[in-house]
Amino acid sequence: MKCLSPLATALRLLAALSLLILSGCASLQQLSEAQRPNASVVKVSVADLSLKTITLNAQVNIENPNPFELKTAGLELDAAIAGHSLARISQPDSQLTLPASGNKTIDLPITIKFSELFAAANSVKGKNQVPYGLSGEILVAVPVLGTISMPLEYQDVLPIPQLPDVRIDDVKLLKAGFTEIKLQLDMTIKNLNDFAIDLQQLNFNLAAQGQPLGGGELKSVSLESGKSQSVSLPLSLSLSEFGSALLRLINSDKPMDFSLSGDAELLPALEAWQAENMSFNVEKQLSL
């Protein structure tokens, strides 16, 4: 084995040291030319929706233009509707690694309760959508520049689901005999939403002056966005069951207070909304 001379060894050590110095200078130069990263809300989708709450999923993209990794140092995001802050994400110690010369996308879920929304802003009641805004910041530790803040801003329209409007149109007397009375209930069901809905297993009960007249079931009612459907339903009443008092009530010329109550399974045509039960109770004064 041939040994290197002291001069050759020294030259090799000098060359290695020169490479280390040059590499260090290059790294120092990169650090001194550090650029500000950018962050933006690229998309907000409805992750979950019901008659009580809505969960939004805010997709935030962070771009790192530097040839070295960066770390986030915290994040905050607020959801404001009609000037009222209703949801907030605050993670002051959040640490994410941002790849060199790359980007990273994070999902931030935000849940809003409609009861809190209506309490904060009465002006949104009865509306099926309302403008909202997201605002916040992400903190990133950047060499030389220090900890910098990247603001986040986003505006869109928030859907507010509405129960279908159920109304009594008329109650008609079709037949009044000694043993049986036949009525016809005319009702209208209207979809107040910007999306289609289905009502399954709609059960209803009709009463007059507090006296139950009977009920029935509709297996399915499909309503397109903003559309209504009229339904006529026959009711057969047995006098042996309800008595002569009902006949006198039906044959009276005086207006009567009718009430219609019931429940149904609500199936909106939205992937994020699972089926849930709804109930209704409406009244109207009519003369037969």
Could you list some keywords that capture this structure?
288 residues; alpha+beta; Immunoglobulin-like; five-stranded antiparallel sheet; four-stranded antiparallel sheet; 4 helices; 16% helix
Give me the CATH architecture of the largest domain, please: Sandwich
At the first level of CATH, what is the class of the largest domain?
Answer: Mainly Beta
Alpha-beta classification:
alpha+beta
The mean pLDDT is: 84
Query: What overall geometry do the principal axes of the alpha carbons give?
Result: rod-shaped
Number of domains: 2
In CATH, the topology of the largest domain is named Immunoglobulin-like
Rg (CA only): 34 Å
Distance between the terminal alpha carbons, to the nearest Å? 119 Å
Oligomer: single chain
Q: Indicate the proportion of strand residues.
A: over 45%
Number of H/I helices: 4
What is the helix/strand order?
HEEEEEEHEEEEEEEHHEE
Low-confidence stretches: 16-26
Textual characterization of the structure:
The chain is an alpha+beta fold and 288 residues long. It folds into two domains: 35-159, Immunoglobulin-like, CATH 2.60.40; 165-286, Sandwich (Immunoglobulin-like), CATH 2.60.40. It is 16% helix and 59% strand. The protein has four helices and 15 strands. It has helices at residues 6-32, 114-120, 239-242, 244-251, and strands at 38-49, 53-64, 70-81, 84-91, 97-98, 102-113, 129-142, 146-159, 165-176, 180-190, 197-208, 211-223, 228-238, 256-268, 276-286. Strands 3, 4, 5, 7 and 8 form a five-stranded antiparallel beta sheet that branches. It has a four-stranded antiparallel beta sheet with strand order 12-11-14-15, with no helix packed on it. The protein is rod-shaped, with a radius of gyration of 34 Å. The termini are far apart. Residues 16-26 have low confidence and may be disordered.
